[in-house]
Amino acid sequence: KAERILHIVPLNNRNMTTEADDTGESIQRSGPRARIKVYLRATNLPSPLTVLSQQPDTFARVSMIDQSVGTLDETANNPEGESYEDTEVVHKSSNPRWTWSLTIDYEYGTQVVFFVDIYAVRDQETSHKLAASLNELMRKKGRRFLGRATFDVQDVLGTSRNSKAKRLRKGGVVYAHVELQYETSASSPSNRSLALPDDDRILRLRIKAESLVHTQSTVNKYVSRTTAKPDTYFEVARLSESHERVVVFRSATVKESVCPTYDLAVIELNALRSSSECNLVITVFKLKRRKCKAIGSFEASVETLISACRTNAKVSGFEGCEDAEVSSPGLQLRRGGGESAGKIVVLEASIEHPSDTRESQFLSGADNDGGAPGELALSDDSLCPPVMPGTFIRRPAFRDYTELNIDLCVAIDFTSSNGDPRLPGSLHYSRDGMLNDYEESILAIGSVIEKYSQTKMFPCWGFGAKFNGVVRHIFQCGPDANSLGTDGILNSYRSVFETDLIMSGPTELQSVIKAAAARAKRSHGSASQNYSVLLCLTDGIVDDLEAIQRLVRSYQKLQLPLSLVVVGIGRADFSAFHAWSDSPAQSRGNFKFLEFRHHQFEPHELSRNAIAQLPLDIVENFVGRNIMPSLNR
Q1: What is the full DSSP assignment across 93-144?
Q2: Rounded CA gap, 135 and 526, in Å?
Q3: Average pLDDT, integer, range 344-372
Q4: Peptide bond before 506: cis, by omega within 30 degrees of 0?
Q5: Which residues contact 356 (CB under 8 A, 6 or more apart)?
Q6: d(Cα 39, Cα 396) in Å, to the nearest integer?
Q7: Is the predicted pLDDT of residue 452 greater than 70, yes or no?
Q8: Where are the alpha helices (DSSP H) in 393-531?
Q9: How many Å apart are CA 491 and CA 376, to the nearest integer?
Q10: Distance between CA atoms of 75 and 377, rounded to whole angstroms?
Q11: Over the stretch 7-21, which tens digit does the pLDDT of each residue have?
Q12: Which of 158-172, 233-247, 352-366 is predicted least confidently?
């Protein structure tokens, strides 16, 4: 995200002096300047949109005015003449700390005033619309104005800790904290006095939590299966020189897992404002129905994170640490009383220069317009100088496999427990162009994965239906063995209802898994970067769970390039699938499960969670089979 910097250049500045140059012409010199960053937080905000005990989802809108000019700062060249910035939404918290910061080029002695407007959003689902269209949300009734706080940069800089508080009329307090990045003197504007190291490198951090203890009980260290799994996220914070806690990163939420794998965190080292030896505080939070609560935290420096990753990776026989599931005994989540709350596994920790890396997100097709979707870009220096051509001297990362080709197989449940597809309320029912849950899942996940296929020809299979009086545990959907892209899969699926099938049972997945494995075996003996993914959609408990678990684990031991992703449709009891998906990697195999209803209003979250484990599965398989990326790019 490009950082917006507000340049405050006031007219008729009393600090502006007039001098004569060598030619006798008068020139104007301004006073000393500084680049500052403003961080915001609030406490005790009210909850006007919800029940009294539920904490609000909030964001802040910051606008600025230069008192010496009397107009809004328009340096951003906003065609609508507006000058404001919006923070991210912090969910279920009356005491939000926003990671967003405002950067200002400030001239000392100038009166610069900025306004902080606090808004509450109705619920988390409405909040997700914020990223798409904040202005549209502002015009709707799904938000409420909580109050405005006015700050003067001079007043904030004049306090002992560079922090100032303002109370809102409707309740709550807003805090503004200012930090100095660098300053220049009036006599030598080009000579900067740095307040922190001028470092434009970035920290790439990816972590996973294991065995989170998210209940009040500290006696039982592991949560029973009957306890609801938490929605969690993590924050990275640091302490300022004035001991003010500053949150510099907040991850996306991972739903319903006690072993969540979080998205890659990319943090500017300048935002950390400290050397690599200084400790950061990493805290894991859970989102409850009415509030957000910390599960546990730990302290670790950047150097500690990288060292732990590198040390454990070397034990595994690799020079690099990316994509290696390693952990350090010191990375233990602790509660306030010191009790253990789980363990953190470091999947990636490295410092890179932004110009050396073309940042990409795995399979994020919605975020890549006009180019190759989800481009698997290599950094210019992502490979160390090779000792000899074509030789890797570090473990490859997922982004190195630029010739990756994913073969998608789709299997759909046609058992009788889905209900009569002609009746509203049944799981296969669709009318007036509206997609049912099966179609929504295929579209959300398939449209992303298909962009990594060279042919886009995918098989679509059904199971659990009866043809000519015989139950088929696998049958072809559509007239052709392969369908062209996601649209072709949807057409093949719909064509099944034009046949004389009878929805039957039982629900068995062995046949479709073996069929997908047969396709994957075609690439097993070659050095090609081919990988297969079986997307299986089912509405309930399967009758051969133990058998398919053995199959999936055996395929992983045989290094078969295949992953199984199961999406639960409807409201059946999927606890056995959840237990399998949350088990350790060694016993889980290349398997991922999620329920559609938990993401039915967020197709991007559905696809993101469905393919979250695929990068690790692919790299582990390719490295195990000694398939290395090509150095000739």
Answers
A1: -SS-EEEEEEEEEEETT--EEEEEEEEEES-HHHHHHHHH-HHHHHTSSSEE
A2: 52
A3: 57
A4: yes
A5: 379, 380, 381, 382
A6: 38
A7: yes
A8: 437-441, 447-449, 485-495, 510-521
A9: 30
A10: 33
A11: 444 433 434 444 444
A12: 352-366
The residue that leads in pLDDT, 207 or 380, is 207
Q: How many CA atoms lie within 13 A of 293 on its CB side?
A: 14
| 384-429 pLDDT per residue, tens | 333 333 333 456 777 778 888 999 999 999 999 999 998 988 999 9
What is the spatial distance between Cα 550 and Cα 542, in angstroms, rounded to a whole number?
A: 14
Question: Both tokens of residue 417?
Answer: 């427990």
| Token pair recorded at residue 83 | 């000058």
pLDDT at 190 over 70: no
- In the DSSP assignment, the letter for residue 22 is T
Q: From CA 569, how far away is CA 475, in angstroms rounded?
A: 20
The reported pLDDT for the residue numbered 477 is 95
What is the overall mean pLDDT for the chain?
Answer: 76
The closest alpha carbon to 48, from 173, 167, 172, belongs to 172
Helices (H), 223-380: 269-272, 302-315
Q: Please tell me the distance from the alpha carbon of residue 502 to that of residue 497, in angstroms, as a whole number.
A: 10
Q: Which of 412, 413, 415 has its CA nearest to residue 505? A: 415
515: Cα within 13 Å, side-chain hemisphere: 22
Taking the C-alpha atoms of residue 265 and residue 253, their distance in angstroms, rounded to an integer, is 13
Location of structure tokens 């350090």: 328
Looking at this protein, which amino acid is placed at residue 278?
A: C
At residue 185, the pLDDT reads 54
Q: Which two tokens stand for residue 79?
A: 């065609």
How many DSSP H helices and E strands does the chain contain?
14, 32
User: Residue 105 and residue 31: Cα distance in Å, rounded?
Assistant: 12
HSE toward the beta carbon, residue 252, CA cutoff 13 A: 17
pLDDT confidence bin for 363, thresholds 50/70/90: very low
Task: Mention every residue, 6+ apart, whose C-beta is less than 8 A from residue 613.
Answer: 261, 563, 590, 592
Provide the pLDDT for residue 165.
Answer: 94
Q: Tell me if 410 sits within 8 A of 460, measured CB to CB.
A: yes
Contact between residue 535 and residue 411 where contact means Cβ atoms under 8 Å apart: yes
Which among 211, 205, 297, 288 is positioned nearest to 257, based on CA atoms?
211
pLDDT digits (tens, 9 = 90+) for 78-134: 434 346 788 988 888 889 999 988 888 887 767 788 999 999 886 544 444 444 444
- In the numeric block, the tokens 């929805």 are attached to 503
The reported pLDDT for the residue numbered 77 is 38
Q: Which residues pair with 498 in a beta bridge?
A: none
Amino acid residing at 567: V
Residues 462/537, Cβ–Cβ less than 8 Å? no
In terms of Cα–Cα distance, which of 358, 353, 351, 456 is closest to 402?
358
* Strand spans (E) along 110-240: 112-121, 143-152, 163-167, 173-184, 192-194, 202-210, 231-239
Contacts of 285 (CB under 8 A, 6+ apart): 232, 233, 234, 235, 292, 293, 294, 295
